[in-house]
């Protein structure tokens, strides 16, 4: 396929699309699928036929982030959203295509949950059929790739990314343009370089990357191909958790479809640039999200991190330069190329640009996947978008950054979200997990939860993390059983400190963060356990904020 | 003085490696070799394919038997030590035959906060299941997972690959009981 | 090669090192010792212990000195209150996951963990101890694994996998449950382990130690029914001194003889003698093949039991190339229980033959196969390592430093310089060539040429062509078993293409450096130490009036009196063995 053929295809698809008057979008993300949403599609088709509605169609679309209210069906272009749909509702929904008559399942979209969001990476989620490359092309997919291949040299691509101010969404927020620039300069003896998409998403309670891979796989592919072009690589890997079978399936399908259309493989779109992608599965190890561990895992080894330097961009998979970016990072690439680096840089804060997707969960009224511009305050997220705590309970804290992160209390809720601001509050941006805790949540217990996660997931290579984490957990368990002593608190701090300084990789270095964060903000809850025992502590923590 | 005589040691290894009960219908090495051929063909020339091969085997027969690991090692020239390093590192891989039905209780953050511990508890107390174990009747296997990505539906319990969102202890017990009969 | 020079400061002292040098080594240059527990000079750093952390100005993080290369302009602090405190906590954490068993531990007084806790002045167990309940593995009879004491530094695994290419050891599971264990979670004896003991030699703790056979030796010595005899291996004499504070490489042959006599051995022999005997058999086997049956070349040495074990398991296609000559240890045993017994009219059943070896595999060799009992009795009854021997001396009350020198017993005690160099890589090859030269040309190598320099040194693979009369003999020497694959592959390739073998003669020793770096040698081996021991060995050789095995008068005598000629029927019965393929073992 040549660029002009691709454009022709897009034009004809768009033309055909115009003929569709209305389309029912059935969510077939994992969440809604678990309530059998896929069965609605044939049911709706039948119903449309039965009602003799010719210009109306139905299709499956990716997750729209409201799984808690799923299964979802929406009618486009008017945007009427139906929630908690059952087979019995199908008839009514189809009838509504000609004007709303049945509105008991209609979901109110005129709320801050929808208004305060800004969708860039999720713009296609809920809009297109993730299994159809035509739908992606029709939604202006692969225009960025065409632009890059026909009118930009690699340096221009890197410059555009640099201008945009995009920072890695995998957690650390490393400037993506700088990473690409380093990788482009990196020399490989045999010319082999690898681009890796990190879809390990291990943070428990976060599902941003999964839903992107399920809802819009081609956009991630496009980002990767552009990255390959920019840094001089001809081989990509997508590393996905095995716990995400649907994401794997849709990604695999996307790769095959893209190959068919010569968007992957040799001489992409007739250019001299070749690039192909393979999928590699994780196997239940959070630490494999860490770059050097991920590399080891792709090489077929234990996912133990290795000391850096050498950095992956110098020596990664099989000793070749390897560049790893997060799923969401790649998903931002095509819009930046299409609309320009300056456009992207105009969104967000001084140092944190664009939007960020968060998985808002916990004791919050509207849990789900949200995308907001950087700079949105935590209060807006928790109270406007999230609708505050469930059942009118009192807010206690919001946890960001997952097991590496910290807790943010009421007094800091007006902080605008940015990498730096969250860090200053003793937490981190992380990959986008955001857990709301209310007055009934016991902070020592939650801390133990995060710590146990890290202990379970420690690779065991280095002593500070392997033993330190375990010992911290023992002390916390003791405290929670009412058997703590006043010496426990300084010892917790001592071990935390040693882990932060002497652990080999990010997992061990940050595993103590939740402990330190709760000890700082909620020391009285610890003391309550130590001084007054379990019952006393539970009573005391309840209703307190 | 001297160690176990070499001949006795050589004898012993033979018994160990062949006596281990095989769930796969007591296949002989020959049969296993035939069976693994498709994996070998698929992955032979792919560098670092070990984890993918193990996934394929587990997908097909539910776990990775020792004999299969040994044969795969030979066929793909991967050291047995490496295979076991990997098998025991990644929690996804199973070394023993699993129950007919798998129950994975999500214990990720969202699910933890929204009641996963209570679901686990009732599976343990009321049905006598143990995490990481197969029930005596080989019917069930209880495991925990750290987030299946259905946090919006927390707490989530995956039964035989199907996500059960917004689970409650009662619903899960009911579901399990229906599988029991 | 990168020859760039890096300039930086460490604790305020300027330092210049070649690019790539790690902070740890750079600090050494300016006389600063950074504590380490997982790093070993032979091995790549794993970054496992976290003790070597240092601060680099401008970064909030701490860096591992063992893995971080020095960079231009770095301003490094290796010791300040916070660093030392952190190290101490890490050490306390390691101890909290470690049994409190120093007094009964195989590494008591020479354990790296113990030393560090002493240095850091750790005075109480503040952190509650958690020690996993793991059984010991004594299945090999050569080494004992006590995984509870393992600190997961990874040295043993790296040695076994990368240096020895055996893959018997591995890490299983993860996190706090990580354990060092034989590959498929089976016993070590069922693994491909070749008992070389390199894991034990590199382990910083008592998690892998040699099996202690000293009590059995005392039993024999205290048994009036037993006639106790002993042999010492070439490599033991230049390393034993390290256990007594003497410089490595010091030749203690004659003090050892004296000590053995005081310990109560009734006859003291030297494996150097049987090494000469091995050379007589092996060199004539070589000349035979070389002159009459070149297609059966290369001939491969077989005196290292770990190597023969490795070959039987992993490279059985080389069985026909193996010299059938037994190792010096076994030849000595066979001679003691036949020739020596007959000559002195002693019932061989009552003879106890001990061997003192640098080696843990020698314990296993005693029972390798039935040929190890060709005299009708076990050729050798017990084998102990240099380390065990040092303990025996210490237990016996002998003041080793001041003991006057004595001679070995004759016969089976006299040796040539060729016999002693068996203790180092390249030595067997050199000794065999000295004799083969004589057999082929009828002359001895000339003064200078007798030192065959091209097969000496610590290069992993040494290839050389040696002129022998009208012939050119192509040889290869490898030590550290990972190095051997290259040589074997070259031979295989030639075979496949129907070409002549690239080598006529191949020497392999399992341990890096050969027996001087054996798994039973005093701890702390590094290349530097190997070189010193090696220098000691070559000094012994030079000090010998007789430099070639065939010139050893006692060797001449034993052939005249007893064996007839090399590879005679009798020699075959007593001094040769066979090999069998053991394909059930796999890596
Ligand atoms: C323990 C640990 C787990 C991580 N898990 C993930 C993950 O699941 N997904 C991810 O994208 N990055 C993860 N990271 C961060 C990656 O190592 C890496 O920084 C990131 O993939 C780089 O991509 P970016 O520059 O686009 O952010 C993890 C890091 C650590 C230390
Ligand atoms: S990503 Fe959100 S919408 Fe999609 S399945 Fe998960 S929870 Fe549901
Ligand atoms: S910090 Fe933890 S996860 Fe990272 S290398 Fe060390 S033990 Fe492994
Ligand atoms: S390994 Fe070292 S520290 Fe541990 S018990 Fe033995 S001597 Fe003591
Ligand atoms: S060092 Fe201390 S504990 Fe050990 S034997 Fe001496 S007195 Fe006892
Ligand atoms: S003795 Fe040698 S082969 Fe056996 S485990 Fe140790 S290093 Fe490996
Ligand atoms: S056994 Fe010894 S060498 Fe091996 S990992 Fe443990 S402490 Fe290190
Ligand atoms: S090289 Fe020497 S010490 Fe090492 S295993 Fe062989 S015989 Fe033993
Ligand atoms: S899966 Fe349907 S809204 Fe998420
Ligand atoms: S925490 Fe249970 S699905 Fe994410
Ligand atoms: S010596 Fe550097 S981490 Fe152990």
Question: Would you kindly provide a written description of the structure presented here, covering whatever features stand out?
Answer:
The complex is a heterotrimer of chains A (545), B (181) and C (587). By secondary structure, chain A is of the alpha/beta class. Chain A has helices spanning 3-18, 30-33, 40-50, 90-95, 112-115, 133-138, 143-151, 154-164, 176-185, 208-215, 217-231, 245-260, 291-298, 327-331, 333-339, 341-345, 378-385, 419-424, 443-457, 463-480, 488-502, 506-510, 513-521, 523-541; strands at 22-27, 56-61, 73-76, 80-82, 106-107, 194-199, 235-240, 276-281, 322-326, 355-362, 368-373, 395-400, 406-409, 433-438. In chain A, helix 7 packs parallel to helix 11 (217-231) and helix 19 runs antiparallel to helix 20. Chain A is globular. Residues 1-24 of chain B have low confidence and may be disordered. Chain B has 2 domains: 9-89, no CATH class; 101-180, Glutaredoxin, CATH 3.40.30.10. With 587 residues, chain C is α/β, with parallel strands linked by helices. Chain C folds into 3 domains: 5-79, Ubiquitin-like (UB roll), CATH 3.10.20; 103-117 and 125-210, Alpha-Beta Plaits; 215-575, 3-Layer(aba) Sandwich (Rossmann fold), CATH 3.40.50. Chain C has helices at 23-29, 81-96, 112-119, 155-163, 198-202, 214-222, 253-263, 271-292, 305-314, 328-344, 361-365, 386-396, 417-420, 427-441, 484-496, 527-543, 553-563, 569-575, and strands at residues 5-10, 13-18, 53-56, 62-64, 75-77, 143-145, 169-172, 179-182, 208-210, 227-232, 267-270, 299-300, 351-357, 382-385, 461-468, 471-479, 505-509. The chains are: A alpha/beta (545), B alpha+beta (181), C alpha/beta (587). At the A-B interface, helix 2, strand 10, strand 14 and helix 19 of A face helix 3, helix 5, helix 6 and strand 5 of B. One iron/sulfur cluster is lined by residues 143, 159-160, 164, 166, 168-169, 193-199 of chain C. One FE2/S2 (inorganic) cluster binds at residues 27, 29-32, 63-64, 66-67, 70, 72 of chain A.
């Amino acid at each position: 396929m040549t660029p002009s053929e691709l454009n022709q295809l897009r034009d004809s698809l768009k033309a055909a699309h115009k003929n569709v008057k209305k389309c029912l979008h059935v969510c077939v993300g994992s969440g809604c699928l678990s309530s059998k949403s896929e069965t609605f599609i044939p049911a709706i088709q039948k119903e449309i036929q039965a009602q003799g509605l010719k210009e109306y169609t139905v299709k499956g679309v990716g997750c729209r982030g409201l799984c808690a209210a799923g299964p979802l069906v929406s009618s486009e272009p008017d945007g009427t959203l139906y929630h908690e749909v059952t087979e019995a509702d199908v008839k009514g929904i189809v009838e509504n295509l000609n004007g709303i008559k049945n509105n008991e399942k209609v979901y109110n979209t005129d709320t801050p949950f929808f208004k305060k969001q800004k969708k860039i990476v999720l713009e296609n989620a809920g809009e297109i059929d993730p299994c159809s490359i035509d739908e992606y092309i029709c939604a202006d997919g692969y225009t960025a790739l065409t632009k890059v291949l026909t009118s930009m040299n690699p340096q221009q691509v890197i410059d555009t990314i640099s201008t945009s101010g995009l920072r890695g969404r995998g957690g650390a927020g490393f400037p993506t343009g700088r990473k690409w620039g380093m990788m482009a300069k990196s020399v490989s003896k045999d010319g082999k370089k690898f681009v890796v998409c990190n879809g390990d998403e291990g943070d428990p309670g976060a599902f941003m990357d999964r839903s992107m891979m399920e809802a819009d796989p081609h956009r991630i592919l496009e980002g990767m191909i552009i990255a390959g072009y920019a840094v001089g690589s001809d081989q990509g890997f997508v590393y996905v958790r095995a716990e995400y079978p649907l994401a794997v399936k849709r990604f695999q399908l996307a790769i095959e479809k893209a190959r068919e259309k010569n968007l992957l493989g040799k001489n992409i779109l007739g250019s001299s640039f070749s690039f192909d992608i393979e999928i590699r599965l994780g196997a239940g190890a959070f630490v494999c999200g860490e770059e050097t561990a991920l590399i080891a895992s792709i090489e077929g080894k234990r996912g133990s991190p290795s000391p850096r330097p050498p950095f992956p961009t110098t020596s990664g998979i099989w000793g070749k330069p390897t560049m790893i970016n997060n799923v969401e990072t790649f998903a931002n690439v095509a819009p930046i190329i299409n609309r320009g680096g300056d456009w992207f840089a105009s969104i967000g804060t001084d140092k944190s640009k664009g939007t960020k997707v968060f998985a808002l969960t916990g004791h919050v009224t509207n849990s789900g996947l949200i995308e907001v511009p950087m700079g949105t305050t935590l209060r807006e997220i928790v109270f406007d978008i999230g609708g505050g705590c469930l059942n009118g309970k009192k807010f206690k804290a919001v946890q960001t950054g997952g097991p590496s992160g910290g807790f943010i209390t009421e007094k800091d809720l007006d902080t605008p979200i940015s990498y730096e601001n969250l860090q200053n509050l003793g937490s981190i941006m992380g990959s986008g997990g955001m857990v709301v805790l209310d007055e009934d949540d016991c902070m020592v217990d939650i801390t133990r939860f995060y710590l146990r996660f890290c202990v379970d997931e420690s690779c065991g290579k280095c002593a500070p993390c392997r033993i330190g984490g375990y010992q911290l957990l023992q002390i916390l368990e003791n405290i929670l059983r009412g058997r703590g002593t006043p010496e426990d608190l300084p010892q917790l701090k001592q071990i935390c400190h040693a882990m932060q300084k002497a652990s080999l990789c990010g997992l061990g270095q940050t595993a103590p963060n939740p402990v330190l964060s709760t000890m700082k903000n909620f020391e009285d809850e610890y003391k309550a356990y130590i001084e007054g025992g379990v019952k006393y502590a539970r009573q005391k923590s309840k209703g307190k904020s | 003085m001297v160690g176990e005589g070499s001949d006795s040691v050589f004898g012993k290894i033979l018994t160990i490696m062949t006596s281990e009960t095989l769930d796969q219908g007591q296949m002989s090495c020959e049969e296993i070799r035939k069976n693994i051929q498709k994996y070998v063909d698929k992955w032979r020339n792919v560098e670092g394919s070990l984890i993918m091969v193990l996934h394929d085997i587990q997908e097909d027969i539910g776990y990775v038997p020792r004999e299969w690991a040994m044969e795969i090692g030979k066929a793909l020239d991967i050291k047995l030590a490496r295979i076991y390093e990997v098998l025991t590192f990644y929690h996804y891989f199973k070394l023993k035959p699993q129950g007919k039905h798998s129950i994975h209780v999500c214990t990720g953050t969202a699910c933890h906060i929204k009641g996963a511990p209570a679901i686990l508890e009732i599976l343990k107390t009321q049905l006598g299941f143990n995490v990481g174990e197969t029930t005596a009747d080989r019917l069930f296997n209880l495991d925990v997972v750290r987030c299946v990505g259905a946090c919006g539906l927390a707490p989530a319990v995956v039964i035989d690959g199907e996500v059960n969102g917004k689970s409650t202890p009662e619903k899960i017990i009911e579901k399990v009981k229906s599988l029991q009969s | 090669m990168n020859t760039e020079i890096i300039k930086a400061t460490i604790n305020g002292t300027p330092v210049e090192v070649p690019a790539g040098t790690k902070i740890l080594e750079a600090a050494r240059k300016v006389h600063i010792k950074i504590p380490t527990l997982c790093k070993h000079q032979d091995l790549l750093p794993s970054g496992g212990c976290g003790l070597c952390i240092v601060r680099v100005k401008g970064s909030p993080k701490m860096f591992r000195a063992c893995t971080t290369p020095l960079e231009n302009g770095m301003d490094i602090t290796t010791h300040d209150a916070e660093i030392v405190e952190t190290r101490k906590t890490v050490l306390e954490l390691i101890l909290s996951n470690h049994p409190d068993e120093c007094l009964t531990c195989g590494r008591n007084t020479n354990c790296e963990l113990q030393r560090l806790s002493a240095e850091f002045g750790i005075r109480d167990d503040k952190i509650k101890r958690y020690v996993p309940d793991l059984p010991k593995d004594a299945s090999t009879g050569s080494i004992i694994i006590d995984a509870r004491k393992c600190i997961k530094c990874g040295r043993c695994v790296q040695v076994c996998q990368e240096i020895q290419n055996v893959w018997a050891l591995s890490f299983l599971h993860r996190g706090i449950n990580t354990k060092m264990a034989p590959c498929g979670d089976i016993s070590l004896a069922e693994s491909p382990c070749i008992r070389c003991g390199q894991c034990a030699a590199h382990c910083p703790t008592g998690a892998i130690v040699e099996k202690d056979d000293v009590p059995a030796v005392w039993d024999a010595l205290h048994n009036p029914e037993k006639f106790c005899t002993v042999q010492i291996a070439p490599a033991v004499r230049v390393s034993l001194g390290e256990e007594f504070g003497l410089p490595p490489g010091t030749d203690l042959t004659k003090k050892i003889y004296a000590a053995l006599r005081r310990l109560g051995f009734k006859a003291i022999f030297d494996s150097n003698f049987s090494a000469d005997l091995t050379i007589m058999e092996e060199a004539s086997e070589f000349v035979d093949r070389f002159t009459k049956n070149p297609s059966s070349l290369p001939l491969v040495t077989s005196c290292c039991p770990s190597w023969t074990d490795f070959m039987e398991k992993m490279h059985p296609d080389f069985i026909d190339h193996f010299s059938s000559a037994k190792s010096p240890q076994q030849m000595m045993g066979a001679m003691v229980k036949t020739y020596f017994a007959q000559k002195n009219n002693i019932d061989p059943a009552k003879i106890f033959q001990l061997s003192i070896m640098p080696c843990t595999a020698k314990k296993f060799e005693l029972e390798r196969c039935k040929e190890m009992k060709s005299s009708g009795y076990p050729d050798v009854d017990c084998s102990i390592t240099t380390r065990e021997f040092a303990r025996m001396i210490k237990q016996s009350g002998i003041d080793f430093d001041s003991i006057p020198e004595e001679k070995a017993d004759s016969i089976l005690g006299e040796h040539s310089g060729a016999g002693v160099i068996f203790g180092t890589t390249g030595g067997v090859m050199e000794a065999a060539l000295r004799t083969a030269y004589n057999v082929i040309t009828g002359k001895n190598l000339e003064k200078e040429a007798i030192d065959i320099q091209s097969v000496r040194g610590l290069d992993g693979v040494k290839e050389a062509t040696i002129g022998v009369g009208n012939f050119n003999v192509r040889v290869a020497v490898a030590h550290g078993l990972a190095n051997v694959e290259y040589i074997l592959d070259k031979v295989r390739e030639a075979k496949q293409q129907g070409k002549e073998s690239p080598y006529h003669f191949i020497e392999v020793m399992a341990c890096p450096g050969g027996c001087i770096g054996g798994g039973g040698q005093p701890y702390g081996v590094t290349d530097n130490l190997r070189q010193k021991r090696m220098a000691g060995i070559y000094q012994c050789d030079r000090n010998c009036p007789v430099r070639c095995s065939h010139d050893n008068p006692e060797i001449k005598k034993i052939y005249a009196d007893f064996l007839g000629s090399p590879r005679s029927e009798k020699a075959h019965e007593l001094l040769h063995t066979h090999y069998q393929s053991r394909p059930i073992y796999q890596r």
